Amino acid sequence: RDRINYLHTVLSLAISIAEARTVLEHELETIRTGGTWKGERIITSKQGPHINVDGSHGDILNFCANNYLGLSSHPQVVEAGIEALKKYGAGLSSVRFICGTQDIHKDLEQKLAQFHEREDCILYASCFDANAGLFEVLLGPDDAVLSDELNHASIIDGIRLCRAKRFRYKHMDLNDLETQLKESQSSRLRLVVTDGVFSMDGDMAPLKGICDLAEQYGAMVFIDECHATGFMGPRGRGTDELLGVMDRVHIVNSTLGKALGGAAGGYTVGPKPLIDLLRQRSRPYLFSNSLPPPVVGCATRAVELLLASNEIAQSVGDKTMRFRNKMTEAGFTISGSDHPICPVMLGDARLASLMADDMLKLGVYVIGFSYPVVPKGKARIRVQISAAHTDQDIDRAVDAFIQTGRKHGVVS
Ligand code: PLP
To answer: Over pLDDT 90: what percentage of the chain?
Structure first.
């Protein structure tokens, strides 16, 4: 009888697994037939404006990294990572509060607080974690969070984890924000939450208007600066510096995984009591490993370079405008205004994907973005300019766009 029961259990399990497989395969097929499959190309060199891609011959021009300042493979950044690896080892095998805090973690936190001109800083394994770990700690059921409808997925997930009342305002719409601020007036704390720069369109939050409204209605302001830290504003401090509201934005989350060396890691900067509380309560901080020393070493050097000179922060602006102007002249529609994220708007998901494939055949690596990453019908190729691109690199990319755009009837 035991044997029969055993065989029955094994059989049921096999049937469940087969059913799960059918469900998953059906889901995958839906993505494929919908034309929204996201393949991964394999890079066989280090990150930079020129890369090698598995299956493509020779040098490929790369226009889809968030390597805005070209620091991902900067010799000094790489060297600092090697030094930290040698001196401090591969990793901590621990979370921060057990035995995972080294002097280099404290030093990087201090430098990031200085860079953003905020009281204190806490490091996370990623900005996704920083966003996942903030709202639950700061806001309870008596509080309210007011979030731009197009905020990054990690903000949306972080807000889902908190128990505050949720208000979603229309993208960058100050009138709608004001309506929601009025509606949430009875809440104890109110936090307005926005990306500084929205990564899909390269558009910038109207921070001055947001801060005016927040002050009028007694709310705090949070910004996610992943696509701004290092190169927006005269000293690269971010959107808040560019728009003159550094002292009016209370909390900033950002990443070490884009302009600041590109390795990995994220952080929150803001008032000291908030950072102290995050160290006590923020779950992705408490229950996840410390940032590895080589990663800390690379990021620290990147921040030091930016603290030492404003030139690096300024190095991507002219290149961005060269690409935007030439593409617009050629008849393409580029979303956003002057950010190095330059979305070439195409509309159709399949067209974006086919054009990106054709661009690679011409030696230019760009990626098509489609639903669910962007709204349906708003597929695009998102080009990202880096300070490490030369003028010739940019001109070559524009030429390749014109050639493929003509082939697909996008430009004449
Ligand atoms: N926030 C924004 C606006 C982002 O674009 C990203 C990365 O794509 C993140 C957060 C997450 O950053 P990280 O890669 O450090 O987790």
So the answer is: 90
182 part of the active site? no
Which residue ranges of the chain lie beneath pLDDT 70? none
Catalytic residue among 199, 254, 282, 335: 199
Catalytic residue (choose from 105, 227, 250, 339): 227
At residue 293, the 3 state secondary structure works out as: helix
pLDDT attached to residue 36: 73
Average pLDDT, the chain: 96
The pick from 124, 152, 382 for probing ligand 1's pocket by mutation, whose C-beta has the most ligand atoms within 8 angstroms, reads 152
Ligand 1 and 199: CB distance under 6 A? yes
Model pLDDT, residue 57: 84
**Rounded CA separation 279/118 (Å):** 16
Query: Could you give the CA distance from residue 388 to residue 49 in angstroms, rounded to a whole number?
Result: 6
Pocket test for ligand 1, best of 124, 127, 147, 198 (most atoms within 8 A of CB): 127
The token duo for 38 is: 């996201």
Q: Is the CB of 254 under 6 A from ligand 1?
A: no
199 is catalytic: yes
Six token digits for residue 99: 């035995």
Across the beta sheet with 266-270, what order do the strands follow?
120-124, 266-270, 251-255, 220-224, 190-195, 144-148, 165-169
Give the ligand 1 atom nearest the CA of 198: 3
DSSP letter, residue 334 = B
Q: Which long-range contacts (CB under 8 A, 24 or more apart) does 215-218 make?
A: 215/248, 216/181, 217/178, 217/181, 217/182, 217/185, 217/190, 218/190
Query: pTM of whole model > 0.85?
Result: yes
Question: Apex CA 89: angle with CA 84 and CA 94, to 5°?
Answer: 115
Query: How many whole angstroms from its chain centre is CA 292?
Result: 20
- The pLDDT value recorded for residue 167 is 98
CB of 154 sitting under 6 A from ligand 1: yes
Dihedral of the CA atoms 149, 150, 156, 159 (nearest 10)?
-40
